[in-house]
Amino acid sequence: MQLVTSFGPFLAGCAAMYVACDFSPWLALAFAIPTGAFMVRVFIVQHDCGHGSFFASRRANTIVGRLCSLCTFTPFASWRRQHAQHHAEWNNLDRGDRGSDIYSSCLTVRAYLALSPWRRFAHRLVRHPLIANFLLPPLIFVLLYRLPFDTPRTWVRERRSVLLTNASFVALFATLVLLLGWRDVLLVHLSIMVVASILGVWLFTLQHRFPGAQWTGRGAWRYVDAAMDGSSWFDLPIVLRWFTGNIGFHHVHHLNQRIPNYRLAQAHEAARAVRAVPSLGLRAGLAAPRLTLWDETSGRLVRFCDVARRETPA
Asked: Where are its TM segments located (predicted)?
């Protein structure tokens, strides 16, 4: 049923946008918003397939995950292994700054201030909310995922996944361009990806950087504590919870990544009976991406401007 309610509306939205292109490009762009939201839902299916949790069958997870990748522009095998590294040790300050992974890594205030002025400027620039949450997400999914730039050469299967996904895109979009014209194809699929990537990256950002999130280091990292205290329970309205595939129950997902999205709510109720977890509301979620540094003195996440005020003499 989730496949029907994810792929069905997404493909219908794409078709509606192509029809709307004959009347007005602005009407087509308006349809990109709900269609992009359905792409997020398709990505959640791919995410669960990557964890081997959507189906009991490993083969079924692989097949559906690869089908999802043709909608989400995300090479399945490569992303699956990269994401597994995230689940191996998250909210751990000993990881430092992982370079390309700016959304689930964090520097301490002390480490940030120890950087040279140029490196501090560069670190802050790419994490500016407008760049990190609006400019970079479409570039990551449209361009960066086309290159196995951060995939080790020993990951042969994963590097092949990137190339095969790209070849599939060439065949798919060449056919669409021949049938429908390059302008309509570009308008439809680029606008959908812009919407979906911005929504998806925003969700991913606040899953570990939110008011009250706990980050630890120096050997103090513990699996259960990192899941329950370092991953968010994003308490969304029921409609948004449905669109985002219950990924707001992220603390439960990190507690056990083999729980499929359609069982997370039940698992959340069971976990809450054992250990209380504060919820993150929609308003706080909108402000969460600004929390980018860990202040070891106060034991909380802070914004760049909080550090700048501290440096400014009275």
From this structure: 26-44, 130-149, 161-180, 186-206
Cβ density class 194-215: b for 16+ within 10 Å, e for less: bbbbbbbbbbbbbbbbbeebbb
Range of the domain at 181: 2-311
Neighbours of 47 (CB within 10 A): 24
Query: How does pLDDT run across 232-274, given as a tens digit for each residue?
Result: 999 999 999 999 999 999 999 999 999 999 999 999 999 988 8
Residue with tokens 């995922």: 145
Total tally of structural domains belonging to the chain = 1
Spacing of C-alpha 222 from chain mean position: 23
Chain CA centroid to CA 169, Å:
21
State if pTM tops 0.85. yes
The answer to whether 215 and 89 have CB atoms below 8 angstroms apart is no
Residue 106 Cα distances to 91, 122, 162, 241, angstroms: 8, 14, 27, 27
